[in-house]
Amino acid sequence: MQDFDTFYCTEEVPHLSCEDFKAWELLAQEKPVILTNTGLCNPALKWDLNYLEKHIGTSEHVVFASNSNIFKYYDEHKIKFCPDFKRPTEKMEMTFKDFLTRFRDWKPGDKRLYLQQSLSSNIGPKVAADFVSFNWLWLRKLMKIVHWGPLTSNLLLIAMQGNVTPVHYDEQQNLFCQLVGHKKVILFSPDHHNRLYPHPVYHPHDRQSQVDLSRPDFERFPGLRHIKGHEAVVGPGDVLYIPIYWWHEVHSLPPDPYTVSLNFWYKAPPTENVSYPLLPRQEVVIMRNIEKMVVDVFKDASQVDHFFQSLTLGRYTVVGAGVPAQLSTSIHNCTAHTTQRQGVADHVSEPSTSCVGQSNEETKLGRERRSNLTQEDVIVEDVCSAGDGVPTRAAHVSRRSEAETNSSCSCCSSYTSSPSHCGSCCSVAQSP
After folding, report:
1. Which residues contact 369 (CB under 8 A, 6 or more apart)?
2. Nearest CA-CA partner of 183 in 34, 17, 51
3. CA gap 229, 10 in Å, rounded
4. What percent of the chain stands above pLDDT 90?
5. Cα–Cα distance, 240 to 246 (Å, whole number)
């Protein structure tokens, strides 16, 4: 189906009893499904604002405030890589009583609020008793079948009507339990990773998409034309399975004045035996590990940008090569290509004057730069295991002798260039 206000088609996420064999099959295949009759969070279905006000306790909770209805996550620790980054929301800590006062006194024009708090031993005794009474027996049965890793946290979410968490993905398995009100969740499989243009790993908006699905910019993000999603509407008692690395956007729906939800986050166990072809989510893991490795080597986000452009332009982005021009969005004149993976790895084109986003003069200068490289190289070695059981490699910077450098190919030399600063690193990932 296709909504009148969307540009992409969606199919409905199956709504199945937790005892239905098809539901277990979808869980095993890491595909979204809405589970009913789990009884997982039945004791928490009474967690409306009045109940929580009386029983959640006096500890402080994390509350985000936004000038709009968009609440885009950001990593505070990565702001150092993007000094010009502007926080899209304000993070505060307040008691539930203070949150409730601001919520009830809210009027149009005020900042919108979103409470996002991990449950801990600081919650009040009645809420803690409700939590202990969850259907943990069903969860243990589920874990024996899906073989997920340990439960890492439970996140309590209280959102105002109309709040939106824009499209992003998580690196954990997620059982999303709806307690009060209704939410709409739009999901996209990991196959759409390149079409949703994630921010770089070093960016504060890591794991978030650069696109605004409500205002698509097809010129900057041409791959958006080819996305297809899955839609789920969940109400009290529903448990939505959001698979690891699946993109999702969450809307708090009217007419409910607010929504209350609870996440169950589970780690994915490492895969002991890697099978080929790799799963799309395993490809995402590889890309993330490569980005992390390069950031660790250069320590400077602007050099990381330049490195990936030097590595790909004219080699993996030659017009007609049949591979996607999925690069940093600082290259605004990229041409989109369809993905044709077969044969790409074995038939890498030589640098061409017809590469995307690069003029003939730039290509000439790039070749001259590569021909002048003689000393420093980045050596990649030591195969090790990364998350998801995907093999990756650890990197270190090493000096090569002149003889070794002269005997290496031009591609190796281009890999070892020392890129100059190319402006603010924030130019690579502008918020929609």
Report:
1. 417
2. 34
3. 4
4. 64
5. 13
Half-sphere exposure of 135 (CA within 13 A, CB side): 17
Q: Which residues contact 96 (CB under 8 A, 6 or more apart)?
A: 52, 53, 56, 57, 58, 61, 115
The count of residues in the chain is 432
3-state helix, strand, coil in the chain (%, to 5): 30, 25, 45
**How close are the terminal C-alpha atoms of the chain, in Å?**
26
Q: How many other CB atoms are there within 10 angstroms of residue 13's CB atom?
A: 23
Which tens digits make up the pLDDT trace of 364-395?
A: 444 444 444 433 333 333 333 334 444 443 33
CA 201 to CA 26: how far, in whole Å?
30
Which pTM value belongs to this model? Answer: 0.74
What residues form DSSP beta bridges with 234? 183
Distance between CA atoms of residues 47 and 53, nearest Å: 9
298, amino acid identity: F
Q: Where are the beta strands (DSSP E) in 119-180?
A: 151-160, 164-168, 173-180
Q: Are strands 33-36 and 239-242 parallel, antiparallel or unpaired?
A: antiparallel
